[in-house]
Design brief:
Elements: E1 6-15, E2 18-28, H1 39-50, H2 52-55, E3 63-72, E4 79-87, E5 102-109, E6 118-123, E7 130-131, E8 134-135, H3 138-152, E9 155-157, E10 163-171, E11 174-176, E12 183-185, E13 195-197, E14 200-209
Antiparallel strand pairs: 1-2, 1-3, 2-10, 3-4, 5-6, 5-14, 7-8, 9-10, 10-13, 11-12
């Protein structure tokens, strides 16, 4: 709706009947006139067109993404979603991942003090690309590097010239409560917003896990 608004992108799917959920945040940094729909429509369609194609090659076909939702944190009228069917495309012998929980991890780096560095975990690690928990396969590393570029890059908008309208950011949670234990929530307006633009997505060669997606935890 306005320059400075934050759009939350929630990507949902499954791996071997286990939920896979990843959340991304983008800040509108340029003003423009949306064609059809509104800015949230452009974010969801841009994410599907510009980001998901680089997510698929780092996962086997055990991973199926089925929904993308976008919410403007500062405007409840801007909530849209798309039902999709996008399948992991990394080809390995047998087409299997090494399990539901192992994942590759990225550190989302920024240069703003007082905000934790971000992280992203992508499920569906193919069998054979790692040894002793360390990713070693050159072909897979190339795909993972392409995804890193996508994670740190903007969602662009434009009919002829593509402008970097929505940039990826880390959003600091708002702490509530007079004393510990505190609760934390996302900002609800620009006055509460503290954010950091992502400047680098650094792949961790050590495999990690989708801890919050294990049975009985998370969605």
């Amino acid at each position: 709706m306005a320059v400075g608004d934050i759009y939350q992108v929630t990507l949902k799917g499954t791996i071997k009947e286990q939920a896979v959920v990843n959340v991304f945040h983008y800040r509108q940094q340029l003003g423009y006139l949306p064609g059809t729909g509104n800015e949230a429509d452009d974010v969801v369609d841009g994410f599907i067109d510009q980001k998901i194609p680089d997510l698929l090659p780092v996962s086997t076909n055990d991973v199926v993404y089925d929904r993308v939702q976008v919410d403007n944190l500062f405007d409840e009228t801007q909530q849209v979603f798309r039902i999709i069917s996008e399948v992991g495309s990394y080809a390995v012998s047998g087409g299997n991942s090494i399990g539901s929980h192992p994942a590759i991890g990225y550190r989302l780096e920024h240069g703003v003090g007082g905000i934790k560095q971000g992280a992203k975990r992508i499920a569906g690690v193919p069998s054979g690309v790692a040894a002793d928990g360390v990713v070693i396969d050159a072909g897979f590393l190339a795909e993972a590097d392409t995804l890193a570029t996508a994670l740190e890059g903007p969602i662009t908008v434009g009919l002829v010239i593509q402008d970097p309208v929505f940039i990826p950011v880390i959003v600091k949670r708002v702490r509530e409560g007079a004393s510990s234990p505190y609760t934390y929530r996302l900002p609800e307006n620009s006055g509460e917003l503290v954010y950091a633009p992502i400047i680098n997505a650094l792949l961790n060669l050590l495999l990690t896990t989708q801890n919050s997606r294990k049975i009985g935890i998370g969605e």
